[in-house]
Amino acid sequence: MMTIDDMYNAITAAVQRAEQSQNTADLMELQMLAGYLMRPAESVGDGETARRFQLLAAKTANIREDIMKQRGED
Questions:
Q1: What global pTM score does this model have?
Q2: Residue 60 zone, left/alpha/beta (φ > 0; ψ -120 to 50; rest)
């Protein structure tokens, strides 16, 4: 069974792969996934886990935006 840490680590690794390949579509999906995983943590009062996924979603969004700016796709 996957743990929260396993999910976080898997998403982080996927973000790194998507960043290396400049895949903005994957980055968008990963950003949404991290955001979705934040919600159940919030609903059970697990602020630490919610914050981890919130920060991961924000980091992923920033990476995606940087790639799009480099491409001139503002």
A1: 0.92
A2: alpha
Question: What is the 8-class DSSP label of residue 33?
Answer: H
Report pLDDT digits (tens) over 33-73. Answer: 999 999 999 999 999 999 999 999 999 999 999 999 999 87
Q: Whose CA is closest to 33, among 7, 13, 71, 67? A: 7
Do residues 50 and 42 lie in contact, with contact meaning Cβ atoms separated by under 8 Å? yes
Cα gap 67→50, rounded to integer Å? 26
Rounded to whole angstroms, how far apart are CA atoms 3 and 43? 18
